[in-house]
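For the sake of transparency, this paper describes our internal protein records without simplification. The remainder of this section carries one protein's record, kept here as part of the documentation:
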Amino acid sequence: MEDSAKPIDPSGSGGAVANRPPKPTISPIRERILGPLSRYPRLKNALVSKPILHPVSSIEAELAEMDRAWRKYRSINDRDAVYIYLASVFKVVMRWRLLDCARKKSRAALRLRLNPPQLRPEPFGIIIFCTADPEIVDAKTRSKWSRVLRYAARAKPAGQRITDFVKSNGGLNECARRFARNRRYVSDLR
């Protein structure tokens, strides 16, 4: 009867396992995958809590605003969706121009990127470079959008939305052409 009163060992090994220390929760294979020089950063970062993102400066906050406009533009499948992004870029750069710091802030935004290239000191082009996906917006498209925004900065009436202005002047391509044609006659506002 004494044999039936003993508790049953769930491991089924006759009690030998119950005396061992518990196994570590992370296996050696997982430790190797999640090590400091891991080739799998997503797995490594999945275990680390995400930092709270607070923009350190006003430039980063404004770049984040334009980044949200970029993502919204890319999520909408409409030919006029690009105006969402361009209006955001236009609004920020024109605010900087009113404060007389457009070149300074755009260059500072460029320095926030890793290995920034040498770009012409033109605020619209720099901000488009900093906030748009380079796989989608190549140098030619960036130049065209920059010319459109510079033309709007020069010729748009104060109360008119940029979308309405560009559409009423023939669209993106026509505004870019008008800016390039008149560029040699009128100095560019900076």
About this structure: The CA atoms of residues 4 and 114 lie 71 Å apart. The radius of gyration is 29 Å. The chain is about 55% helix and 0% strand. Confidence is low (pLDDT under 50) at residues 42-55.
